[in-house]
Design brief:
By secondary structure, this protein is an alpha/beta fold. The chain has helices at 29-51, 75-86, 91-106, 130-140, 158-164, 170-186, 199-202, 214-232, 238-248, 262-276, 297-300, 362-368, 377-382, 384-392, 403-407, 416-428, and strands at residues 146-148, 154-156, 190-194, 285-295, 307-316, 335-338, 350-354, 371-375, 396-400. This is AlgX/AlgJ SGNH hydrolase-like domain-containing protein.
């Protein structure tokens, strides 16, 4: 029989040691079994709900998380949580319940996902190893989905988190945008880039005095607007939007939605048309038209449904009849808009890569551009050949990319390799 030396660990698991042994530790079998059952229910619930016909509605302005690939190694298990959370059919009710409970018991928002420290969190901006990606995901979890501002204003939490925890650094963002300009212009096409500013950029005065990422967001925003427009030729609409708001007597963004009003879409359309042909908008007539209800996107993140009244406009490029077309689309499937040519219009075929801000501009782009197709930025990375064929149809290529996604390097299309793949096709099909 062997004698255990002092300080030597026993040869058996601590659960098998006599209860009086100082190293004895029970397995907590009951607790472990309960935890395992809860985990299985959590991950199985989306599958069971889908089987019985329930479908999860996306709450955020992004695609739902896809089922992780088994080839990701440990990333398969870390990715399961995001997939299961996004596909719970009762997610919106659960979020609403948590928010209501927090308000009822503590008189404040649950601020789901928010760090309590309020200290800035920085990103390394570029190392794509699995370990660094997990570190970025952890830092992202410290930020709220919603930033509660003053006087009922709400801001999208990504205004801060994307700037504080960027996927790639600002130098690589600039390089990616410049590469797109190079490949488009090398094919004989005109290129335009417009970056709608975040609501927190145009209206920082309604932000709370303290919030997670305040310092790093402010610093990153200042560097972004100091460097990116000058380096890439992007249009800076900040001052133009403030001027319009002062003229209209109301904010160009709403309190509860992250997007600009339709007046912002009109302003972008006018700016782009003038950049392509000076004086083309002189006879334009823009007037208020129909009003309709739109679901505010930020309250959705708190499990609440709120609507705001959208003021639409008519746009007559020749000063005559209204030429707008309201066609709802998220541009995941390219949207083609074509109309009879009239004075005051851009008649050259135009192709546009645009995100959700263009949803508030597409009716006016349709009124001002006789041949227009809009596709989503994600398509450029996921289906570059298809996007290349779409862009090759145009003589003008316009990119509309929102500030938070560009500043955070969140568009996969910012990888210069994506631009090169599309550029090869454009070079083989130049404008003649």
């Amino acid at each position: 029989m062997s004698i255990q030396e002092p300080g030597e660990l026993p040869a058996v698991h601590e659960a098998w040691l006599p209860r009086e042994h100082p190293l004895h530790r029970p397995r907590h079998g009951g607790r472990q079994a309960t935890a395992l059952v809860c985990a299985l229910l959590f991950f199985a619930a989306p599958v069971l709900a889908w089987t019985f016909g329930a479908r999860a509605a996306p709450l955020e302005n992004r695609p739902q998380a896809e089922f992780p690939s088994i080839t990701r190694g440990w990333g398969f298990f870390t990715g399961l949580s995001a997939w299961a959370t996004d596909h719970l059919s009762f997610r919106q009710g659960a979020v609403h319940s948590v928010e209501a409970l927090s308000q009822g018991l503590f008189g404040e928002s649950a601020r789901l996902g928010e760090s309590t420290s309020g200290s800035p969190v920085g990103g390394d901006g570029g190392d794509d190893s699995d370990r660094d990606r997990r570190r970025r995901d952890l830092r992202m979890s410290m930020f709220p989905d919603v930033i509660h501002g003053k006087d009922g204003w709400m801001y999208l939490g990504h205004d801060a988190s994307y700037k504080c925890v960027p996927e790639i650094g600002i130098d690589r963002v600039i390089a990616g945008l410049r590469r797109w300009r190079d490949v488009v212009e090398a094919s004989g096409r005109e290129f335009r880039l417009v970056i709608p500013p975040d609501k927190s950029t145009v209206y920082p005065e309604h932000m709370p005095d303290e919030f997670a990422g305040e310092r790093c967001m402010t610093e990153a925003r200042a560097e972004f607007w100091r460097r990116v427009p000058a380096a890439t030729g992007a249009f800076d609409m900040r001052e133009r939007l403030r001027t319009i708001a002062e003229s209209d007597g109301e904010p160009i963004y709403t309190k509860r939605d992250t997007h600009w009003r339709h007046r912002g879409g009109v302003a972008m359309t006018r700016m782009l048309a003038e950049s392509l042909r000076s004086g083309v908008t002189e006879d334009w007539q823009v007037r208020p038209s129909r009003r309709f209800q739109h679901n505010a996107d930020i309250p959705d993140l708190l499990g609440r449904e709120e609507t705001w009244t959208v003021q639409g406009h008519s746009l007559a490029p020749d000063g005559g009849a209204d030429n707008t077309r309201f066609v709802p689309s998220d541009f995941q499937q390219p949207l083609h808009l074509e109309s009879e040519q009239r004075p005051g219009m851009i008649t050259r075929p135009t192709r546009m890569v645009a995100d959700s801000f263009a949803q508030f501009a597409s009716p006016y782009m349709a009124a001002a551009f006789s041949d227009l197709t809009i596709t989503h930025p994600d398509n450029a990375a996921e289906r570059p050949r298809k996007v290349a064929r779409t862009l090759a149809e145009g003589e003008v290529v316009i990119f509309e990319l929102s500030e938070r996604f560009v500043a955070g390097g969140r568009y996969p299309m910012l990888d210069p390799k994506v631009a090169d793949r599309v550029g090869e096709y454009l070079a083989a099909h130049p404008v003649r």
